[in-house]
Amino acid sequence: MKRFAVLFLILVSNAIAEPLSVEKAVQKALESHPDAKIAQFNIERSESETRVSGADLLPQVNLNASYYPHKTFVMPQNGVFSTRESDALHTDLSAKYLLWDGGASSAKHHASKINEEMFSYKKEESAEELAEQVKQLYYTIDFLKNRVRSAKASVRFYDEQLKRAHAMYRAGLKTEADESRFAASKYAAEEALHTLESDIRKKEHFLALLMGAKDKAEIVEGSLETRFDSVPETIEFDALRAQLAVRNPKLGALSRGIESAKLGIDAAEGARYGTIDAVAQYAWDRSLSRYDSSFVGLVGSIPLYDGRKKESQLQKARADHALSEQEYARSRDLLEQLLFDAVQDMNRSGHLLQTQSAIFESAQKTLKLMQGRYAQGLAGYVDVLEAQSLYEQSQSGIDEAKLLKVLAWERIEKLLNRGSARHE
Description:
Layout: H1 2-17, H2 22-32, H3 34-55, E1 60-77, E2 80-100, H4 104-170, H5 176-211, H6 223-230, H7 237-247, H8 249-270, E3 275-286, E4 290-301, H9 309-375, H10 381-415
Antiparallel strand pairs: 1-2, 2-3, 3-4
């Protein structure tokens, strides 16, 4: 029995420690993050508002009743008023149907439907924003873990050089400055390593918060390299710019906002002309006597004076429409610039990677040569440190170029809403 319990615990531990793919991380964030839930609640609220506005276009039927245990009735008789006391009961079934209001109610209902689409686009925008944030953290963590491995190698390098310098100093072949300088470089490398590890912990904690997890999630190491291999080498900006207005969910939401604001103007204009309603009622009363009554007819209402309320509402609607158009233009320009920047970063990363790879190859050879010359007394510690620094910078440059390309591509994917089924 003990063996089965131990085996079970091992299996559970392995399941918990199983690395989480970037797709799973995004899925968890979309399922649990408040932004995703807020977007869904906004859609549900807009659907309710559409039903409310649609109800104004349907007949309104009410059943009313009132009962008074004690009521005084005044009755004229032979020029003299007399009173009688009695209880009173009244019931009626009334109906009202809007025939015409200048199109105000119809415009409001149509605007509500447009708002449903707007919030649907906002949900897509929220999902794309959240997905990009998760991917940025995920790939940055993998990048930092690569840098940690390199930093550990640097600490080992400086430690080996320190030991060699110490031995050569004791043998009278090197000065105390060699030993001190390599020691300082080792301390600096250790501090850089601790900084990287701290950055990883911060980002792992943030990623866990985005996913709604209590503990940090282990990523699949090597994901950055895998994603880098799947990204196109280069891409043309003009080919993507044409898709921006069609695919971007933020612009989609803003364009629906313009349509809704235009319908707001129509509603405000229609409200100035009044209403015509069809009305009907059947009533039954019991007090001093019993009787029923009914009527069917039309009721019209024309606003004569309301303190310029409707005029102000129309001005506000026109201002809202103008603001929505300017917000669209501003956002379009900003998103186009973000897309341009991402394309430039992505295309630049290829040249950067090629350059850093060439530098890395040369720095590797130089470092090996300088180490040999230093051991022979033909080079000083400065030569070794410069060669190592160039080696570390080029190694970091290669990783940074890959990260730059991947993050730029994820930004492009977000701006063009590539994950949405709307455009598939």
